[in-house]
Design brief:
This is AAA family ATPase. The protein is an alpha/beta fold. The protein is built from eight helices and five strands, in the order H-E-H-E-H-H-E-H-E-H-H-E-H. About 55% of the residues lie in helices and about 15% in strands. The radius of gyration is 17 Å and the shape is globular.
């Protein structure tokens, strides 16, 4: 065991830290679309909480708060593995609570990665409702939220205590938002 511990410490000391970008926001604001494009532009790994939760539910687990937490933790573990290799990771998740956000702070701390929180919003309610009506992500178990569901989530959405880059997706395409995001994060380095 001592040899394995020494080897792990050596690997950790020698690695180049990755960059963790966490794209957050209410359902329907464009998190997954922006994350996919931003990851492709930056040659990063893209991880989506909804895809992980969908996989867990498709195995027969009942939809619950615990499955949601497990999806965050499974995604965190995958992010850490990639960050430890010096890769950049883009995660998309609602991240509406301090507990959810702590997941990503922990990943950054454990790996020495740079962490950037991005919060996407839609300032026009009609646009937000329309996007919810038109979307079909093909997730059989996670499902699509209604406007009432989004309003409930908005009421409980925790105020940000971290530095966060807020971007309005109301009148911009996912490509425009992603390109602007990549540009701003690159300039920040």
């Amino acid at each position: 065991m001592k040899i394995a511990d020494d080897h792990r410490q050596c690997r950790i000391a020698d690695r180049v830290s990755g960059h963790l970008v966490v794209i957050s926001g209410l359902p329907g604001v464009g998190k997954t679309s922006v994350a996919e494009i931003a990851a492709a532009l930056g040659g990063s790994i893209h991880l989506s909480i909804d895809a992980v939760e969908e996989s867990m539910l498709s195995c027969g687990l009942p939809a619950s708060w615990q499955v949601g937490v497990a999806a965050y933790e499974a995604t965190r573990a995958m992010a850490e593995l990639n960050l430890q290799l010096g890769r950049s990771v883009v995660v998309d998740a609602v991240n509406d609570s301090e507990e959810a956000r702590q997941t990503w702070r922990t990943a950054a701390l454990r790996t020495g990665a740079r962490l950037d929180f991005v919060h996407l919003v839609i300032t026009d309610a009609r646009t937000h409702v329309q996007r919810l009506r038109n979307r079909d992500r093909g997730l059989a178990h996670v499902g699509e939220p209604t406007w009432a569901d989004v309003q409930r989530r908005r009421a409980d959405y925790a105020v940000w205590s971290d530095e966060v880059l807020e971007l309005d997706t109301t009148a911009r395409t996912a490509d425009e938002v992603a390109r602007g995001l990549v540009s701003r994060l690159s300039a920040k380095q």
